[in-house]
Amino acid sequence: MGKKNRAKQSGKPGGAMLRHKKELVKMAADLFKLCVMSPSTQDEWEYYLKVHTAVENFSQKQKNVSDPPVVQPIDRTTAIPKFKSWLKEHGVEYSAIDIQEVSEEEGFGVIALQDIEIKCPLVTIPRKAMMTYEDAKSSYLAGLIEGNEVLSVMPNVCLALYLHCERFTLNSKYQPYIDMIPQEFNTILYFKPHEMKYLKGTAALSVAINQFKSIVRQFALLYQVFNGSHQKEDVEKLPLQARNAFTFDTYRWCASAVTTRQNKIPTHLDENSTLALIPMWDMFNHAIGPLSTAYNALTRGIECLAMQDFKTGEQVKICYGARTNSDLLIHNGFVMKESPFDKVRIHLGVSQKDPLYSLKAKLLEKLNVEVSGQFAVCSMDNSLPTSPQLLVFLRVFHMNEEELRSWLEKQKNELSSLREIYISGEVKFKSDVKVWEFLENRVKLLLMGFKKIGDNIEEMMEDKSLTHRSKLALQFRIEEHRILSACV
Ligand SMILES: C[S@@+](CC[C@H](N)C(=O)[O-])C[C@H]1O[C@@H](n2cnc3c(N)ncnc32)[C@H](O)[C@@H]1O
Predict the structure, then answer these.
(1) Boundaries of each SET domain copy (predicted)?
(2) DSSP-based three-state secondary structure for 144
C-alpha cells in the first residue's frame, strides 16, 4: 500500500516529538521484558490480561503521539479483476475455477466453473508469482535480517516484515495480491479478553496465550530495532512509510496473513524448504481430504489438483493437512466440527523424584518418547483414544523395576509391541488396567475444568450478542469436550 491517497501522512515536529519517541522506545523495552516471562498455569490468565493491557496502552500512546499512517479499507470484490490480471501477468494458470465471496464464516473462496473430476489440475503457480522468505532476504531487508540475531533465525518473522513493508510501499509489485488479503483475521491475535475467556479450562488456552505473547514480543523487539541506533543504517533502507506505519495492529495483521496463508516450498538451490505466500492457491478454503498440492521441480511451481469431484458452482476446497483444532483456531482462526485430525494435548512427565526415574527415562529414550511433554488424546474416529506415544509413555510410567529392567534388556525391534494395544506374553493385562485408569482419571479431571464456563454451551452458541470469535472459542470447547468424553 503506502499510496499517499490511501495512507494518511503524519508528523509532530521538534523536541516534543523526540521525547515522545524515546518514551515509546522505553515502553517497547518494558513490553519486551514482560513478554519474556513464563507464567505458571495458575497465573497465566492474569499474565495474559497484563500483556493485553500493556500492548493496548502502547498502541494508544503511539496513536496519540505519532499518528501512524493507516491502511484505508479496500473492498475485496472490487479488487478481484486487478488481482486476476496480475495473476495472468505472473503466469498463474487456472481455467475451471473462479474467486468469489463464499460465506460470512469462510470469507472468500474458490468455486467450480464446470464439473471437475478428482485429480484434475486446478491451478499452477510459478515461483515468480510467490512472495518468499528468499525474496525478503534479497530485498531492502537483507542487511537488517543478516545483522539481527532474531530475524536471521526466524523466516516467518522476516516474511511477515516483508509483507508489512510491501503493504506500505508505493506501487509495490505485490499490491494487487496484497489487496486481496482480508483486512482482519480471527487468529488468536485478534481475540479480546472477553472472547479469549471461553478457552479457559481447555488445553488451548496456554498455547493461545503463548502465541499472543510471542507476537507481542516480536513486535516490541522490532519496534526498538526500527527506532533505535543499533541497526540504523539497515533500518533506513526500508521504505519510510513502512517504518512510520509499524504498529501492533499492522504487525498482527502481517503475522496473521503469514500464519493463515503460508506454505513451504523447496528453495531453488537445494532440497531445503522455504516459506512462501502463494497467490491464488491461498484463496482455497480447507476441508478434510487427501493432500493434493505438490511442488514441480522442473517448472519450479506449485501444482494443485482436485482432491475430489466437484460440481459446477460448488465451492472447491483443498486439505491444509492433518491439523488439530487447537492449531486451526490459534493460527488460522477457524474450527472444524468432528474432525478426524483433531487431538487434545495433555502435559505429562516422569518426576525426577521418582525412584525409578533413570530407568524410565532410559527406556523412554530407547522408544523415542519424551520423558516429559505434550501427549495427544485423539479424536474418537481413531481406533485408539491415545496417540502411540501416549500409550507407550503411560505403560513405561506405570512399570515396576522388574518390568523396566526386562524391557531394557530387549533389542529396539522387540520393543514395538509396547505401541500396540494388546500385548501378549510377559506384560500382564493387570498393569494395562492401571494405565487406562490413570488416563481416565486424568481426562475426567480435565473435563471438570469445562464446568467453569457452564453446561449450556450449545445454548450460548445461539446467543446473538456473542461475537463470532467468542463462538469460535465455544465451538473449540465443544470439540475438545467431545474428544475427552469419548476417551473416558
Ligand atoms: C488460505 S485462506 C483461504 C481464503 C480465505 N477464506 C480468504 O477469504 O482469503 C485461509 C483462511 O480461510 C478461512 N477458512 C479456510 N477454511 C475454512 C473453513 N473450513 N471454515 C472456516 N473458515 C475457513 C480461515 O479464515 C483461514 O484462516
Answers:
(1) 90-321
(2) helix
Owning domain of residue 282: 76-130+278-324
Is 282 touching ligand 1 by the criterion CB < 6 Å? yes
In a domain, 331, yes or no: no
CA of 253 to the centre of ligand 1 (A): 15
Q: Which atom of ligand 1 is nearest to the CA of 286?
A: 16
User: ipTM for the complex?
Assistant: 1.00
Cβ(279) to ligand 1 under 6 A? no
Q: How far is the CA of 269 from the centre of ligand 1 (A)?
A: 32
Q: Would the CB of 108 count as within 6 Å of ligand 1?
A: yes
Structural domain includes residue 7 = no
Q: Are residues 88 and 54 in the same domain?
A: no
Alpha carbon separation from 70 to 6, 18, 190, 248, 260 (Å, rounded) = 8, 21, 17, 12, 22
Cβ atoms within 10 Å, residue 445: 11
From atom 27 of ligand 1, which residue's Cα is the shortest distance away? Answer: 332
Q: Per-10-residue mean pLDDT for the chain, 488 residues long?
A: 42 72 95 95 95 98 90 93 98 97 96 98 96 96 96 96 97 96 97 96 94 98 92 94 96 98 78 88 97 89 96 98 96 96 92 96 95 87 77 93 92 84 60 88 88 76 94 95 90
Question: Contact at 8 Å (CB) between 327 and 476?
Answer: no
The CA 109 to ligand 1 mean position distance, Å, reads 7
Going by C-alpha positions, the residue among 214, 162, 212, 177 that lies closest to residue 192 is: 212
